[in-house]
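Box 3.1 A note on notation
Throughout this textbook, protein chains are presented in two layers. The first layer is the amino acid sequence; the second is a C-alpha coordinate string describing backbone geometry. Keep the layers aligned when reading.
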Amino acid sequence: MLLTVDVGNTNIVLGLYSGRGDSAELVRDWRMRTDARMTADELSLTMRGLLGRYADKVTGISALSTVPAVLRELRTMLSRYYPNVPKVVVEPGVRTGVPLLVDNPKEVGGDRLVNTLAAHHLHNTACVVVDFGTSTNVDAISAKGEFLGGAFAPGIDISVDALASRAAALRKVELVAPRSVIGKNTVECLQSGILYGFAGQVDGLVRRIIKELVSGPGERVEVIATGGLAPLVLNESETITEHVPELTLLGLRLAYERNITGGRPAAR
Protein backbone atom coordinates (compact mmCIF):
# COMPACT_ATOMS: atom_id res chain seq x y z
CA MET A 1 0.00 0.00 0.00
CA LEU A 2 1.21 3.51 -0.81
CA LEU A 3 1.38 6.07 2.00
CA THR A 4 1.14 9.70 0.87
CA VAL A 5 2.25 12.45 3.27
CA ASP A 6 1.39 16.12 2.70
CA VAL A 7 3.05 18.37 5.28
CA GLY A 8 1.49 21.83 5.20
CA ASN A 9 1.98 24.85 7.43
CA THR A 10 -1.09 24.04 9.53
CA ASN A 11 -1.85 20.34 9.04
CA ILE A 12 -0.20 17.11 7.96
CA VAL A 13 -2.50 15.01 5.78
CA LEU A 14 -1.91 11.30 5.31
CA GLY A 15 -3.49 9.17 2.62
CA LEU A 16 -3.27 5.42 2.08
CA TYR A 17 -3.74 3.99 -1.42
CA SER A 18 -4.21 0.40 -2.49
CA GLY A 19 -3.49 -0.66 -6.07
CA ARG A 20 -1.84 1.48 -8.73
CA GLY A 21 -2.69 3.31 -11.91
CA ASP A 22 -6.36 3.59 -12.80
CA SER A 23 -7.20 0.84 -10.30
CA ALA A 24 -5.70 2.73 -7.33
CA GLU A 25 -8.12 3.56 -4.53
CA LEU A 26 -7.79 5.90 -1.55
CA VAL A 27 -8.49 3.57 1.39
CA ARG A 28 -8.21 6.04 4.28
CA ASP A 29 -6.97 9.52 5.03
CA TRP A 30 -6.01 11.24 8.27
CA ARG A 31 -5.22 14.78 9.39
CA MET A 32 -2.85 15.84 12.17
CA ARG A 33 -1.55 19.18 13.40
CA THR A 34 1.78 20.45 12.05
CA ASP A 35 4.35 21.28 14.70
CA ALA A 36 7.64 22.65 13.40
CA ARG A 37 9.34 21.37 16.59
CA MET A 38 8.26 17.76 16.00
CA THR A 39 11.17 15.31 15.88
CA ALA A 40 11.55 12.39 13.48
CA ASP A 41 10.73 9.95 16.30
CA GLU A 42 7.58 11.85 17.27
CA LEU A 43 6.50 12.06 13.67
CA SER A 44 6.90 8.31 13.19
CA LEU A 45 5.08 7.47 16.43
CA THR A 46 2.13 9.72 15.59
CA MET A 47 1.86 8.43 12.04
CA ARG A 48 1.97 4.79 13.12
CA GLY A 49 -0.69 5.51 15.72
CA LEU A 50 -3.00 6.96 13.08
CA LEU A 51 -2.28 4.20 10.58
CA GLY A 52 -3.13 1.54 13.14
CA ARG A 53 -3.59 -1.85 11.48
CA TYR A 54 -2.27 -0.44 8.21
CA ALA A 55 1.09 0.60 9.67
CA ASP A 56 2.94 -2.55 8.66
CA LYS A 57 1.27 -2.77 5.24
CA VAL A 58 3.06 0.28 3.77
CA THR A 59 5.08 -0.74 0.70
CA GLY A 60 5.80 2.73 -0.71
CA ILE A 61 5.84 6.36 0.46
CA SER A 62 5.38 9.63 -1.41
CA ALA A 63 5.78 12.82 0.60
CA LEU A 64 6.21 16.57 0.45
CA SER A 65 6.69 19.33 2.99
CA THR A 66 6.26 23.09 2.67
CA VAL A 67 7.79 23.50 6.16
CA PRO A 68 11.61 23.31 5.99
CA ALA A 69 12.06 22.26 9.64
CA VAL A 70 9.59 19.39 9.28
CA LEU A 71 11.09 18.39 5.91
CA ARG A 72 14.41 17.74 7.63
CA GLU A 73 12.75 15.55 10.28
CA LEU A 74 10.60 13.86 7.65
CA ARG A 75 13.71 12.78 5.75
CA THR A 76 15.25 11.44 8.95
CA MET A 77 12.08 9.59 9.85
CA LEU A 78 11.82 7.96 6.42
CA SER A 79 15.42 6.79 6.43
CA ARG A 80 15.29 5.59 10.04
CA TYR A 81 11.93 3.84 10.15
CA TYR A 82 11.34 2.93 6.49
CA PRO A 83 14.86 2.16 5.19
CA ASN A 84 13.79 -0.56 2.77
CA VAL A 85 10.57 1.04 1.54
CA PRO A 86 10.68 2.78 -1.90
CA LYS A 87 10.04 6.47 -1.37
CA VAL A 88 9.76 9.81 -3.17
CA VAL A 89 10.08 13.24 -1.58
CA VAL A 90 8.69 15.80 -4.02
CA GLU A 91 11.03 18.76 -4.42
CA PRO A 92 12.95 20.51 -7.23
CA GLY A 93 14.59 17.91 -9.43
CA VAL A 94 12.04 15.17 -8.86
CA ARG A 95 10.49 13.95 -12.10
CA THR A 96 6.81 14.91 -12.37
CA GLY A 97 6.40 15.72 -16.07
CA VAL A 98 5.04 19.19 -15.21
CA PRO A 99 6.72 22.05 -17.15
CA LEU A 100 7.20 25.05 -14.85
CA LEU A 101 6.72 28.22 -16.90
CA VAL A 102 7.73 30.65 -14.15
CA ASP A 103 10.71 32.87 -13.47
CA ASN A 104 12.27 30.60 -10.84
CA PRO A 105 11.04 26.98 -10.93
CA LYS A 106 12.84 26.20 -7.66
CA GLU A 107 10.44 28.53 -5.84
CA VAL A 108 7.39 26.43 -6.73
CA GLY A 109 6.25 24.46 -3.70
CA GLY A 110 5.77 20.74 -3.93
CA ASP A 111 2.06 21.09 -3.11
CA ARG A 112 1.45 23.37 -6.10
CA LEU A 113 3.45 21.02 -8.30
CA VAL A 114 1.52 17.87 -7.43
CA ASN A 115 -1.79 19.74 -7.53
CA THR A 116 -0.97 20.66 -11.12
CA LEU A 117 -0.12 17.06 -11.93
CA ALA A 118 -3.36 15.79 -10.39
CA ALA A 119 -5.62 18.44 -11.95
CA HIS A 120 -4.33 17.77 -15.45
CA HIS A 121 -4.59 14.03 -14.87
CA LEU A 122 -8.26 14.42 -13.94
CA HIS A 123 -9.33 16.75 -16.74
CA ASN A 124 -6.63 17.01 -19.44
CA THR A 125 -7.67 20.60 -20.07
CA ALA A 126 -6.86 24.09 -18.78
CA CYS A 127 -7.49 24.32 -15.04
CA VAL A 128 -7.44 26.73 -12.13
CA VAL A 129 -6.69 25.15 -8.75
CA VAL A 130 -7.85 27.00 -5.63
CA ASP A 131 -6.12 25.57 -2.56
CA PHE A 132 -7.70 26.79 0.68
CA GLY A 133 -4.97 26.31 3.27
CA THR A 134 -2.88 28.54 5.51
CA SER A 135 -2.75 30.78 2.46
CA THR A 136 -5.25 30.71 -0.38
CA ASN A 137 -3.37 29.70 -3.53
CA VAL A 138 -4.96 30.23 -6.94
CA ASP A 139 -2.86 28.50 -9.62
CA ALA A 140 -3.20 28.44 -13.40
CA ILE A 141 -2.57 25.31 -15.47
CA SER A 142 -2.51 25.28 -19.25
CA ALA A 143 -4.34 22.78 -21.44
CA LYS A 144 -0.95 21.07 -21.95
CA GLY A 145 -0.48 20.58 -18.21
CA GLU A 146 2.02 23.41 -17.79
CA PHE A 147 2.23 25.26 -14.49
CA LEU A 148 1.86 28.94 -15.36
CA GLY A 149 1.95 30.58 -11.93
CA GLY A 150 -0.85 32.06 -9.89
CA ALA A 151 -1.75 34.26 -6.94
CA PHE A 152 -1.44 34.07 -3.15
CA ALA A 153 -3.82 35.59 -0.62
CA PRO A 154 -3.97 35.34 3.18
CA GLY A 155 -5.90 32.26 4.24
CA ILE A 156 -9.22 32.31 6.04
CA ASP A 157 -7.85 31.33 9.45
CA ILE A 158 -5.00 33.85 9.24
CA SER A 159 -7.39 36.66 8.37
CA VAL A 160 -9.84 35.74 11.13
CA ASP A 161 -7.05 35.55 13.72
CA ALA A 162 -5.61 38.88 12.60
CA LEU A 163 -9.01 40.58 12.79
CA ALA A 164 -9.74 39.20 16.26
CA SER A 165 -6.32 40.21 17.59
CA ARG A 166 -6.30 43.74 16.14
CA ALA A 167 -9.92 44.79 16.77
CA ALA A 168 -10.80 44.99 20.46
CA ALA A 169 -14.56 44.63 19.95
CA LEU A 170 -14.36 41.70 17.52
CA ARG A 171 -13.78 38.02 18.20
CA LYS A 172 -13.51 34.67 16.45
CA VAL A 173 -16.87 33.26 15.40
CA GLU A 174 -18.22 30.00 14.02
CA LEU A 175 -17.73 30.04 10.26
CA VAL A 176 -21.24 29.32 9.04
CA ALA A 177 -23.49 31.27 6.67
CA PRO A 178 -25.45 34.05 8.41
CA ARG A 179 -29.15 34.69 7.83
CA SER A 180 -28.35 37.28 5.18
CA VAL A 181 -25.43 39.18 3.70
CA ILE A 182 -26.52 42.21 5.71
CA GLY A 183 -25.58 41.12 9.23
CA LYS A 184 -27.93 42.15 12.03
CA ASN A 185 -25.41 41.67 14.85
CA THR A 186 -21.64 41.49 15.33
CA VAL A 187 -21.44 37.74 14.83
CA GLU A 188 -23.44 37.82 11.59
CA CYS A 189 -21.45 40.79 10.30
CA LEU A 190 -18.23 38.85 10.84
CA GLN A 191 -19.65 35.69 9.26
CA SER A 192 -20.89 37.62 6.24
CA GLY A 193 -17.60 39.40 5.69
CA ILE A 194 -15.57 36.22 6.04
CA LEU A 195 -17.66 33.81 3.96
CA TYR A 196 -18.97 36.09 1.23
CA GLY A 197 -15.84 38.23 1.26
CA PHE A 198 -13.52 35.27 0.65
CA ALA A 199 -15.87 33.80 -1.95
CA GLY A 200 -15.86 37.13 -3.78
CA GLN A 201 -12.08 37.37 -3.55
CA VAL A 202 -11.64 33.91 -5.02
CA ASP A 203 -14.19 34.49 -7.77
CA GLY A 204 -12.53 37.77 -8.72
CA LEU A 205 -9.07 36.20 -8.93
CA VAL A 206 -10.36 33.17 -10.85
CA ARG A 207 -12.19 35.31 -13.43
CA ARG A 208 -9.10 37.45 -14.03
CA ILE A 209 -6.87 34.36 -14.35
CA ILE A 210 -9.28 32.72 -16.80
CA LYS A 211 -9.20 35.84 -19.00
CA GLU A 212 -5.43 35.44 -19.31
CA LEU A 213 -5.58 31.66 -19.53
CA VAL A 214 -8.01 31.08 -22.39
CA SER A 215 -6.65 31.43 -25.90
CA GLY A 216 -9.91 31.24 -27.83
CA PRO A 217 -13.69 31.27 -27.53
CA GLY A 218 -15.32 28.17 -26.12
CA GLU A 219 -12.18 26.87 -24.41
CA ARG A 220 -13.09 24.93 -21.28
CA VAL A 221 -11.44 25.75 -17.96
CA GLU A 222 -12.07 23.63 -14.88
CA VAL A 223 -11.89 25.36 -11.50
CA ILE A 224 -10.96 22.87 -8.79
CA ALA A 225 -11.14 23.59 -5.06
CA THR A 226 -9.05 21.69 -2.54
CA GLY A 227 -7.58 22.22 0.91
CA GLY A 228 -9.01 21.83 4.39
CA LEU A 229 -10.92 25.13 4.40
CA ALA A 230 -12.53 24.72 0.97
CA PRO A 231 -15.94 23.52 2.31
CA LEU A 232 -16.43 26.88 4.04
CA VAL A 233 -16.86 28.79 0.78
CA LEU A 234 -17.85 26.14 -1.78
CA ASN A 235 -21.55 26.97 -1.68
CA GLU A 236 -20.89 30.70 -1.98
CA SER A 237 -18.46 30.63 -4.91
CA GLU A 238 -19.73 31.27 -8.43
CA THR A 239 -16.64 30.01 -10.26
CA ILE A 240 -15.60 26.74 -8.58
CA THR A 241 -16.76 23.79 -10.69
CA GLU A 242 -15.43 20.87 -8.65
CA HIS A 243 -14.29 20.00 -5.15
CA VAL A 244 -11.45 17.45 -4.94
CA PRO A 245 -10.35 17.29 -1.28
CA GLU A 246 -7.75 14.58 -2.01
CA LEU A 247 -6.14 16.46 -4.94
CA THR A 248 -2.70 16.79 -3.31
CA LEU A 249 -2.70 13.15 -2.21
CA LEU A 250 -3.62 12.11 -5.75
CA GLY A 251 -0.72 14.18 -7.09
CA LEU A 252 1.65 12.51 -4.64
CA ARG A 253 0.50 9.10 -5.85
CA LEU A 254 1.04 10.09 -9.48
CA ALA A 255 4.51 11.46 -8.68
CA TYR A 256 5.40 8.18 -6.99
CA GLU A 257 4.26 6.18 -10.00
CA ARG A 258 6.35 8.30 -12.35
CA ASN A 259 9.51 7.97 -10.26
CA ILE A 260 9.35 4.53 -8.68
CA THR A 261 7.24 2.36 -10.97
CA GLY A 262 8.30 4.23 -14.12
CA GLY A 263 4.70 4.56 -15.20
CA ARG A 264 3.17 7.53 -16.94
CA PRO A 265 -0.31 8.06 -15.47
CA ALA A 266 -2.92 8.20 -18.19
CA ALA A 267 -5.39 11.08 -18.13
CA ARG A 268 -8.91 10.05 -17.22
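The CA atoms of residues 44 and 77 lie 6 Å apart. The chain has a mean pLDDT of 91.
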